[in-house]
Amino acid sequence: MPPPARRGKLAYKILFWFLLISLAPMGVVGYHLVGISQASLRKETLAMQESLAVGFADTVYKYVTTFRNVLAETAGIDEFASMNSVKQQQYLNRIMQVHLAVLELSVSNVQGSEQMRTGRFLGPAPEMRSFEGEEFFIETMRRGQYIGKLERFQGLYPTATIAVAVVDQKAQPAKAMGVLMARVSLNGLSSMLGMEFPATGKSAAAVVDKRDGFLIAHSSPKEVFKPDARISDEVLKIITTQTAPKGGGEMALADGRRLLGAYADVRDLDWVVYVQQPVEYAYQTAAEMRNQIFRVLVWVVLFTILLSLAVAGHITQPIRLLREAAARLGRGQFEDLPEMMTTNDEIGDLAQTFLAMSESLKEKTGELIHAKQELEKFTKFLEKRVEARTRELKSAQDELIKKERLAAIGQMASVVGHEIRNPLAVINNSIYFIKTKLGTASAGTDPKIDKHIRIIESEIKQANGIINEILTYSRTRELKPERVFLSAWLDELLSVYPFPPHIVLDKQFDPINPLVDIDTTEIQQAIRNLMNNGIEVMPQNGTVSVHTRVADDRKSVAILIGDTGPGIPADVLDKIFAPFFTTKARGTGLGLAVVRKVLDRHNGSVEVESVVGRGTVFKLTVPVAQPGTPPPSGAPAGAAGPQHMA
């Protein structure tokens, strides 16, 4: 049966409908008002920007043509057209003095060879040039004038090349005598834009070459004075794809900005004036209207909430009491139910029915609780019996499996040890006899024979070692604990251990020399196994460390045996204590299994930490003999060295 649908609170529903009725009409009207004002502002702002762009485009044209007219007027003077160098120099100097924006003036003949050159940043004897293939020279000779070739003077300041033909008016027909060319600074355009669009405002304007995006002027001069100042390709593409000489609209850029932009072409030039303004600034008035409407809506919401809560409280109060009573019944609380409001309506009828139902539930619940208590008692009794039996069976099963496994391994080891040791003894005796005979021979023995005899002896020793490891692991003898001072006992053990010459011993014992109850034979075998393993993995040189560390509570002591070998890979680290697991080419895989067995028999533990490439440390932890406890039978206390306790 599907669960019943979850119902919302009645007060929330009343609040929702009050808010919907009061806010929906106001929200729709406000939305349309904001939309209308925003559209009007957009239209007005675009018209104003377009007007500014057209006006400044005309200003740019007049600014540039002023210099063209000055050059044309000068080139038309008879004295200048006569190509008299002295007169020409005088006229050029006058132009430089009057018009500060002119940076350089040049006069060339009809062949394009420069005849005269003057400028504000030239030396006393500037080098003459040839303009025969230059665009401005060709166009000027063909059309009589030229405006173009935008460059950056000293890599920063935008300049334009303006040229007019030097014409001899006396000749019939008029004859071109050469070209008068000027490089004119366009910084004045940026200054005019800066006054019209100050940096403190949100609007910006620029004059751009439509062909390549060359930034000619900008309302923020620092944008112009860059080595490669250009308008963004995104804006340039929008402008250059327009067919009308002027226009504007809203633009959405790739970086997320939205702008209102307008443009106007500069007459007779491939230049365009571009004016932009952020959309949010242009729509500021609409935003203020939207905020005002939002504040009104907030007040309406507050008033509606208060009114709806008052109405909902009057309607839902009896229902809340009935719900509280039902909740208490659900928790089994049949006493102290809230007083029901038995009004003369459907809610009052529901309250009467609920009271009758609660009495019936009280009786039935009492019967169920008694039956449940009895059932819980019986269930707990059965669970305890089952858990106890399960633990006993598991313990017995584990012990039986362990004993059967050790018995089988012990029996196999005894048979294998006996059957292999007899042939090994015979081989060993034969080797001894051969060495005796070779030793009595008068002539020297063959070195190869000595080498092979040593190999046979080494292999016999290796085989006996393997048999001893198997027998040691499979046999379980009775522990023979002795109470010894651990540091003194370890010092004596290390003093007789045959360390190879290439191995360095690092021993550090805890200042507390604890007393421990250990089977010295088994612990010695475990420590020797670990040191043997460490030496085997360091064939060239290395360090074997033996440290002791007493626990803070002085109830246990750790023997740390480490090496500086290659370390143990992480994927085999959890397998090294398993019997018969080995990574060596030769070996039984019982060395570390014996170590764990010895520590388990001493109620201790063995842990390992290894870092590949840095070495391995084994931590053997054994209990410390507690003060006041008698030593093991047959062993005097402190038999292995002087007492040294902190």
What keywords describe this structure?
14 helices; alpha+beta; five-stranded antiparallel sheet; 4 domains; Beta-Lactamase; 20% strand; 646 residues
Description:
This protein has 646 residues and is an alpha+beta fold. It has 4 domains: 76-185, PAS domain (Beta-Lactamase), CATH 3.30.450.20; 189-281, PAS domain (Beta-Lactamase, 2-Layer Sandwich), CATH 3.30.450; 340-476; 478-623, Histidine kinase-like ATPase, C-terminal domain (Heat Shock Protein 90). Helices cover 51% and strands 20% of the residues. It contains 14 helices and 17 strands. Strand 16 and strand 17 (615-623) form a beta hairpin. Helix 1 packs antiparallel against helix 9 (284-330), helix 9 packs across helix 10 (346-440) and helix 13 (520-536) packs antiparallel against helix 14 (591-601). The longest helix is centred in the middle third of the chain and has 95 residues, at 346-440.
> Percentage of helical residues?
40-55%
Mean pLDDT value: 78
Calculate the terminal CA-CA distance, rounded to whole Å.
75 Å
Major sheet attributes? 5 strands, antiparallel
| Count of individual domains | 4
